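Worked problem 6 (solution included).
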Amino acid sequence: MDEGGTPLLPDSLVYQIFLSLGPADVLAAGLVCRQWQAVSRDEFLWREQFYRYYQVARDVPRHPAAASWYEEFRRLYDTVPCVEVQTLQEHTDQVLHLSFSHSGCQFASCSKDCTVKIWNNDLTISLLHSADMRPYNWSYTQFSQFNQDDSLLLASGVFLGPHNSSSGEIAVISLDNFVLLSRVRNKPYDVFGCWLTETSLISGNLHRIGDITSCSDVESENVNVVKRLFKIQNLNASTIRTVMVADCGRFDSPDLLLDAGAPPGRIFDLGSEGEEEAAGPVLVRAKEGLRCHLDGLLDTRTQPQLAERALETKVAELLAQGHTKPPERSAAGAQSKLLIFTTGCLTYSPHQIGIKQILPHQMTTAGPVLGEGRGSDAFFDALDHVIDVHGHVIGMGLSPDNRYLYVNSRAWPSGSVVADPMQPPPIAEEIDLLVFDLKTMREVKRALRAHRAYTPNDECFFIFLDVSRDFVASGAEDRHGYIWDRHYNICLAKLRHQDVVNSVVFSPQEQELLLTASDDATIKAWRSPRTVRIRQAPRPRPRPFFSWFASQRR
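Solution. The predicted structure is:
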């Protein structure tokens, strides 16, 4: 400024200069004088800084809840849980899964060391209880989930049976006194299980019908009452795995509304009259594979074993025709839920997601038990929807409002056709994180990418992901956890471990806290730069954002 206090440089020129600076330099320059301070907070300036720094596509609008571009820049930089604050080393083997209580006060961990550990989530995390499942003939624990009022914990593991055979088992643990209340067999073990109501859980049972044909019973357990919910046919060595439940009553008030940004084609409505037309590409690919086998029966080019498998599949499909119960439709206003699970129709590799509506009368212990009352012509239950990802599904997670389903998938090569159900196509190392709207049954957004996996089809394992109000996180085989912003579809942070990251979970009460679990036998707690400053500040008032940004450049 001159001696009279008039700026020597007009605001427009200062603005142009600031456009050439990075965010930290703009904030530092704003400390020089009042004029520069005012220009450094200009909305158009921070709009440019935002798109340039985070490399967001220009056609993506600002988050609907954002007050300004400056505050939105600050949110993405300052509230992402990317600062490691604690490492837990109480497990002695690979940590496979983490789950938070709904209150956020506790969380549970499962591990290859065959324990389920329950932790207190204080400022410093501490171990509250450890349950050793080896006395119950378990090989390891793999999954856990708190019921809605946090009074019970469902723990799932691999059970060793006679002659070293293995299946799954679910244990229910009281969180009042940590007493084991009940155990339920679960087959196959990677069904995992989940809560249906406060006191009812869902498990699976598998019945072999042929060499590559089976049926899965989806069962509801309440105390000592076992009720079969659905009986679903499995073709070509596929099985139902990884069950979860979405509450449809929360669809109309989503925390974040995502716009449809992907072309239709992955989701097929199987409840309509034109079932075969609706299923489109899925049935076309299945028929192409079957046609190859059946044509081969007429000559000697097809291996006998493959011809037998094709014939078995065709017979199973014919058996199901006219013996499958169509989907029930819920009455107007009825509060139903969705059963969601991985499955397939072409190969043992889980390449589809099945969706089946659970009606209110099916969520009680009243009525037929284990299929009583089912018509003699209704062997199987039809699915309502099928999502075909054309790849190997290795993870699923619901948004907090239950409206959006996030799916980790490793894609098959484009145009691949499955000729042998026991030899699925090779899968990509890149993991696609797909997003589906369960209300409109459409794919939304474009696939999120950054994380990778390396194991082949027959060794592939589940990588658990989690979704908070604003973020989605996932583990990966590349020794990192990843965090993306749900609105902007950008990767915000990589969280390093020494081995595969199997599971991630946000605190349901505080999305600025994230836990990661790894094959390196550790659990790491990560907090946002903002909460770290607050915890470390000698005074209640935290350091200004721009001071942190200038000293902690990424």
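Discussion: The chain has a mean pLDDT of 85.
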